[in-house]
C-alpha cells in the first residue's frame, strides 16, 4: 500500500485544535487514540481494519459544525492530512490512515435536529447511527428507508459518503435518492449548505458531488433527508430453485413485468459452487412493503410469475426468520470488535459486488466459476440483490500461507472486476472505492477520471482531505 503525506503535529497546531474542541475531544497519545477508536459507544465499537490498523497521529471529535470547520481549517492551513471517520464500518479502507493523518471522528456530532412528520423529512448531524435514527423516525410513524446490514454501527454521514444501499433498496435505491440537502465543511474550512428542496433546476446540483466521494472532498456535517411512511403491511415470500439459472429467469421475469419488490435477494449457496457435486440450493426472498392494497397486488403477481420457475416455497417461519435476522451477520462481524478477511492461517476470504447490465449476468457468473476453478478458488456464494443488475459473490482461497492465498484471491478479483467493466458494468455497487479499488479507477472511468481529478484539485488543491482514497492521483 502506498504511503502518503507524512505529518506530525506542531505544538502550536495542537494548542489551536485543543482550544477549538477542548482537551476532552482531542487525543494525541497512542493509548488515547487507540482507546477512542475502539471505545464502545452504547456497545457500538468503532471498528478499525485488522490488517491495516491505522496509525493516526491524533483523533479530534468536534461537537458542532463551527468546531469541525475550525479544526479542518487549522489542519489544512498547517498542511496536515485528515480522514473523516463515521462508524468505521466501511469495507474499502476509506478510514485508514495511510500515514500519520489526523482522524476527524464524527461520533459526537450525533444529534437528530428535526423530524417533520407531515413533510416526511428529517435533519441530522452526520454522526448519527442509522439504527438510532430508525428508532426515532418510527416514533413519528416514519422509516429511514436506508437499511444496510451494518445499520447498528454505521453513521448517516458514512453512508452518504459511500452512497450505500440497504435492504429496502429494491424500491428506494441507494441513499443518494434520500438526500435533499447537505452541509459540508470544505477542506479550506469554509462551510457550504446546498439548498434542501425536492426539486431545483437552478444550476448544478452540488450535493451530488459529495455523495459517494468517501470524505475526499469535504466533511459532511449535516444532512436534510427524505423519510418514508411506516408501511401499513410488510409481506415476505421465499422460493427454492433447482439452480441459479432458474432463479435468475424468475428475477428477469419480475423485472420485465415491472413487479418491483422493496427487497429482492437471490442467493446461490453451496460449500463450493464451482463443484456441481456439492449439495446446495438457490433461494429467492422477496419483501413487499407499503400500502395494504399495493402489497397484496404485488405479492399476488409475483407469486404467479415465480411459480413458473420455482421448485418449492420457503415456509413462512423461515422467511420471517430471514427478515428478522437480516442484520445478524453485521452483529457477528462488527459486534465482536474485529473484522477479518482471514479464515485461517493459509486461507483468505473476500467478495465482489458488481453492477452489471442485466444481459451480462449469466456470462459474468460463468467467467467467475471458470476462473475460480482454474485457480483452485472456492466460490461459496453468488447472488443478485434487488433486481437483475447487482451481482455479488463471496470467494475463499487456500494457500501455503495467508499472503499466498490472499494474492491468489486478489488476482482473481481484479480480473473479474475488470471483466465487469468491459461488459459495461461497474466494479462496485455500494461500498465505494476506498484504497481497495483505487488502482481500478482508470479502467472504471476512462478519460472522465480527468474531470473528477479536476474537481478534487479545485476543492482540495493541497490533497489533504482523505488522501490515497478514490483518486489514484492523490497518491504521489
Ligand atoms: C458486516 C457489514 C455489513 C455491511 N453491509 C452493508 C450494506 O448492506 N450496505 C452498504 O451499503 N454497506 C454495507 N457495509 C459497509 C458499511 O457499513 C457502509 O459503507 C457504511 O455506510 C459506512 O458507514 P460508516 O459510518 O461506518 O462510515 P466509515 O466506515 O466511517 O467511512 C466510510 C467512508 O466515508 C467517509 N466518511 C465517513 N463519515 C463522513 C463524513 N461525515 N463526511 C465525509 N466523509 C465521511 C470516510 O472517510 C470513509 O471514506 C457493511 C459493512 C460490514 C462490515
Structural overview:
The structure is a single chain. With 476 residues, this protein is α+β, with helices and mostly antiparallel strands. The chain has 3 domains: 11-108, 2-Layer Sandwich (Uridine Diphospho-n-acetylenolpyruvylglucosamine Reductase, domain 2); 112-229, Uridine Diphospho-n-acetylenolpyruvylglucosamine Reductase, domain 3, CATH 3.30.465; 233-422, Vanillyl-alcohol Oxidase, Chain A, domain 3 (3-Layer(aba) Sandwich), CATH 3.40.462. It is built from 15 helices and 21 strands. It has an 8-stranded antiparallel beta sheet, with helices on both faces. α1 runs antiparallel to α3 (65-77) and α12 (361-374) runs antiparallel to α13 (402-422). It is globular. It starts with 10 loop residues before the first helix and ends in a 17-residue tail after the last helix. The model is unreliable at 1-7, 40-52 and 337-342 (pLDDT under 50). Bound molecules: flavin-adenine dinucleotide.
Structure class: alpha+beta
Q: How does the overall form come out from the CA principal axes?
A: globular
CATH class of the largest domain: Alpha Beta
CATH topology of the largest domain: Vanillyl-alcohol Oxidase, Chain A, domain 3
| Percentage of β-strand residues | 15-25%
Strand elements, count: 21
Cofactor: FAD
Domain FAD-binding PCMH-type: 52-230
Keywords: FAD, Flavoprotein, Oxidoreductase
InterPro entries: FAD-bd_oxidored_4_C, FAD-bd_PCMH, FAD-bd_PCMH-like_sf, FAD-bd_PCMH_sub2, FAD-linked_Oxase-like_C, Oxid_FAD_bind_N, Vanillyl_alc_oxidase_C-sub2
Amino acid at each position: 500500500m502506498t504511503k502518503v503525506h507524512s505529518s506530525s503535529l506542531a505544538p502550536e497546531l495542537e494548542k489551536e485544535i485543543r482550544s477549538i474542541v477542548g482537551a476532552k475531544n482531542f487525543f494525541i497519545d497512542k493509548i488515547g487514540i487507540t482507546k477512542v477508536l475502539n471505545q464502545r459507544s452504547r456497545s457500538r465499537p468503532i471498528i478499525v481494519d485488522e490488517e491495516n490498523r491505522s496509525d493516526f497521529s491524533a483523533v479530534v471529535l468536534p461537537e458542532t459544525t463551527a468546531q469541525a470547520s475550525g479544526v479542518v481549517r487549522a489542519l489544512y492551513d498547517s498542511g496536515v492530512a485528515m480522514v473523516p471517520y463515521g462508524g468505521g464500518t466501511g469495507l474499502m479502507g476509506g478510514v485508514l490512515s495511510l500515514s500519520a493523518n489526523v482522524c476527524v471522528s464524527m461520533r459526537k456530532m450525533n444529534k437528530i435536529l428535526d423530524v417533520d412528520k407531515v413533510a416526511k423529512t428529517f435533519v441530522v448531524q452526520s454522526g448519527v447511527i442509522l439504527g438510532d435514527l430508525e428508532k426515532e423516525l418510527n416514533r413519528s410513524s416514519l422509516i429511514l428507508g436506508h437499511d444496510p446490514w451494518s445499520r447498528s454501527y454505521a453513521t448517516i454521514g458514512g453512508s452518504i459518503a459511500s452512497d450505500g444501499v440497504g435492504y429496502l433498496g429494491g424500491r428506494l435505491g441507494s441513499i443518494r435518492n434520500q438526500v435533499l440537502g447537505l452541509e459540508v465543511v470544505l477542506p479550506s474550512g469554509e462551510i457550504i449548505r446546498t439548498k434542501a428542496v425536492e426539486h431545483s433546476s437552478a444550476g448544478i446540483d452540488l450535493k451530488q458531488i459529495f455523495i459517494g466521494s468517501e470524505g475526499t472532498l469535504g466533511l459532511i456535517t449535516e444532512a436534510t433527508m427524505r423519510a418514508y411512511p411506516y408501511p401499513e403491511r410488510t409481506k415476505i415470500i421465499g422460493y427454492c430453485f433447482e439452480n441459479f439459472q432458474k432463479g435468475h429467469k424468475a428475477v428477469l421475469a419480475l423485472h420485465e413485468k415491472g413487479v418491483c419488490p422493496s427487497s429482492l435477494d437471490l442467493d446461490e449457496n453451496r460449500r463450493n459452487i464451482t463443484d456441481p457435486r456439492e449439495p446446495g440450493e438457490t433461494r429467492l426472498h422477496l419483501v413487499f412493503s407499503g400500502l395494504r392494497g399495493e402489497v397484496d397486488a404485488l405479492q399476488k403477481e409475483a407469486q404467479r410469475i415465480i411459480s413458473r420457475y420455482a421448485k418449492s416455497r420457503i415456509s413462512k417461519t423461515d422467511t420471517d426468520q430471514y427478515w428478522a435476522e437480516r442484520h445478524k451477520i453485521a452483529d457477528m462481524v462488527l459486534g465482536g470488535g474485529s473484522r477479518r478477511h482471514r479464515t485461517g492461517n493459509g486461507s483468505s476470504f473476500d467478495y465482489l459486488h458488481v453492477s452489471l447490465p442485466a444481459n451480462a449476468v449469466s456470462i459474468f457468473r460463468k467467467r467467475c466459476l471458470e476462473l475460480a476453478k482454474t485457480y483452485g478458488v472456492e466460490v461459496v456464494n453468488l447472488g443478485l440483490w434487488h433486481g437483475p443488475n447487482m451481482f455479488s459473490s463471496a470467494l475463499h482461497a487456500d494457500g501455503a500461507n495467508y499472503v499466498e492465498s490472499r494474492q491468489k484471491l486478489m488476482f482473481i478479483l481484479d480480473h473479474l472486476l475488470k471483466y465487469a467493466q468491459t461488459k459495461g458494468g461497474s466494479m462496485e455497487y455500494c461500498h465505494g472505492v476506498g484504497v481497495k479499488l483505487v488502482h481500478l479507477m482508470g479502467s472504471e472511468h476512462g478519460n472522465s477520471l480527468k474531470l473528477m481529478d479536476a474537481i478534487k484539485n479545485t476543492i482540495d488543491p493541497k490533497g489533504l482531505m482523505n488522501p490515497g482514497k478514490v483518486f489514484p492521483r492523490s497518491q504521489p
